[in-house]
Structures are given as C-alpha cells and as structure tokens.
C-alpha cells in the first residue's frame, strides 16, 4: 500500500504542476509580468497560496518554470520534425517555422523573462544562452544537427555549422525580444517565411559553383 500512496502522490504532484503551469501561462499571456502574483496564480490554479510556495520561492521562479515547460514542448516539436525523415533543407525550413511561431506565441512569457533578467542580472548566468538551463538549448542542438547533416551531404555549401547556428540563434533571439517588448507587430506567418527565405538562400549552393 505505501507504494500505491507514493504513486498517488506522484500523480497529484504532476497534476498540480500542470495546473500551475496552465494558470501561470494564462496570466502571463493576458496580463504580463506585472499581472502575475502568487495569490492570483493560486486562485487561477485552484490551489492554496501555501501550495504555490511549496513549488516556487517567488514569481521569478514561476516565470522560468513556464519558460522551461515551453522549451520542452519546443523540443518535442523538433523531434517530431526530425522523425519525418526530410532532406536537410526541408527539415531546416520546418524547424525555423516552428521556432519563429513558437517564439511569437509565447512572446509575453519572453517579455517577462527579459524583465526578470534585466532586474536581476545574476540570473543570466543561470538561465543565459550558455547555461544548461536555457530553454532553447535542445532546440539549438536540433538546428545544429540539421546544419551539420546538410553540409556533410552537400545540400548546403561548406560553412562552419556551429557559427551558422550561432547566427540563426541571434536572429531568433532578436525576434523574441522585439515580439516581447511589442516593437515588432508583423504577421508571424509572414515573418516566418522571411526568416526561412533569408537563411535558406544564404546557405544553399550557388548556381554554377560548389562553394
């Protein structure tokens, strides 16, 4: 019976985390960083305020929890695309589209993260681009793999895949910041197509040359 109790506890904890995620995400998307409070999170998730503090010390931790969950969903999308067995150019297009639309979809969460990191610079080392906690780490690895495969099989011209991935990541992070602070209000589907066009036409072999 103790084993069953442990299983029940694990299921309950998973359900609570899911409820907290959905509640925090809805608050951030509707009201942003300023609208998120621990009390409001508890009410929206249908739990006691003390329960929220069992999981998070403050709302900064809540924001990074949501960001991590979003990153995990993005990683699953990357894996689903990889499993399609597309050629490198088609796979990269699908990956870029997924990333751009995902960044736009969660722009208010990104805005909250920008706010948190700007107000607490010490968090940058824990959650910044070089950190193992960075939510885009596995998505970046997916981009790097398809770039490397494309160079090796000749679909893309010869270049340093790591450096190219850094450049693509820079474009995506800039888009995320612009979406997040409301400085870029373009149609995300159109922006996605433009990013794909920009990247693909920069790395496909030039006509009449192998370079």
TrEMBL record:
Q: Is DNA-binding one of the keywords UniProt gives this record?
A: yes
Concerning InterPro entries, the annotation shows: Cro/C1-type_HTH, Homeodomain-like_sf, HTH-type_TetR-like_transc_reg, HTH_TetR, Tet_transcr_reg_TetR-rel_C_sf
Q: Where is the HTH tetR-type domain?
A: 14-74
Describe the location of the HTH cro/C1-type domain by residue ranges. 35-81
**One annotated GO molecular function:** transcription cis-regulatory region binding
What keywords is this UniProt entry annotated with?
DNA-binding, Transcription, Transcription regulation
DNA-binding residue intervals: 37-56
Q: Which PANTHER family match?
A: HTH-TYPE TRANSCRIPTIONAL REGULATOR BETI (PTHR30055:SF234), HTH-TYPE TRANSCRIPTIONAL REGULATOR RUTR (PTHR30055)
This protein's name: Transcriptional regulator, TetR family
Instruction: Name the species this protein comes from.
Output: Aminomonas paucivorans DSM 12260
